Amino acid sequence: MLKAGVLGAGHLGKIHLKLLQQSTKYELVGFYDASKEASEKIQTEFGYKSFPSMESLINASDMVVVVTPTSAHFECAEKVIKAGKHLFIEKPITQTVAQAEQIRDLAKAMKVRGQVGQVERFNPAFQAIKDKIQNPMFIETHRLSEFNPRGTDVSVVLDLMIHDIDAILSVVKSPVKAVSASGVSVISETPDIANARIEFENGCVANLTASRISLKKMRKARFFQRDAYISVDFLEKKCEVVKMKNAPAEIDDFAMVLTNAEGIKKQIYFENPKIETNNAILDELESFYEAIKADRTPEVSLMQGTEALRVAMLIIENFKKI
Question: Is 98 domain-assigned?
């Protein structure tokens, strides 16, 4: 087992504490939070050990989970890595790309592993179909949430859209060519609703929409590729694959067949991949354990976290041009 500590005991920090305590791969040593009042309350209510300082928690741990506000990510991550401890850091990796690059390079120099908390990569619906996404050429995502003051210290791009940015970058094997975007601040000081278009060098185009002022929740992605359409509902944990193949000479009476302008008949096939029930946050934590033990690149590496942030910042930069 690896000794694990948590920096930051807010809403998400408490979830990490609970799951680390349940895990058979980690030994939870405790947490540190800058609020003395909150620390005492959590220690009394849940029994987790509260450490008097960030440094004391880091020294007692083999792996540290950083779940602080984004503004503190760089400082915490730097201390964790310089102490020679493995780092699990929630998204976005840092406030700036330059900071993310420093963290990425420092981890490499110190020979420690780092993973970014992009939980949708471990969503069972995405896990069920990610290998079926082959060379997508058009992608559309919608991530809509009701307003919640928590998280509004950053743009909706870094709060919500970055989940879809990361998922898209994980399946499109091509460099980003161009980004255009628009965003509107409705309640917050930063944009609450945004739309972005990402163009890749291989011709793929992704259209992303994110809102945190919607009346209902939605987390959907659609991937279009040659002879296939793939949909993922991250919220309902459902997915569907629709494939088209050349119709056989003998067509079943119940088969769905389309004829294109050239007279070629295509038969439509529906697939509903089996979805395994899981706890995505626990899975990402235990996946990181396996990466540390096997000394291999984690599922969502610091480099990937840096690239997702780089694209997110390009989108935010586009807001300023409007």
Answer: yes
Which tokens go with 63? 């792996």
Mean pLDDT of the chain: 93
HEC secondary structure over 129-187: HHHHCCCCCEEEEEEECCCCCCCCCCCHHHHHHHHHHHHHHHHCCCCEEEEEEEEECCC
Taking every pair of Cα atoms in the chain, the longest distance, rounded to a whole number of angstroms, is 74
Helix (H, G, I), strand (E, B) or coil at 311: helix
Both tokens of 92, joined, read 């976005």
Number of Cβ atoms within 10 Å of the Cβ of 293: 11
pTM of the model: 0.91
Q: Is residue 141 part of a domain?
A: no
Total domains present in the chain: 1
Which helix (DSSP H) or strand (DSSP E) does residue 301 occupy?
none
- Measure CA 68 to chain center: 16
pLDDT in tens, 272-284: 899 999 999 999 9
Beta carbons within 8 Å of 188's beta carbon, 6+ residues apart = 152
pLDDT digits (tens, 9 = 90+) for 188-229: 888 899 999 999 999 999 999 999 999 999 999 999 998 899
For tokens 């970014």, the residue is: 116
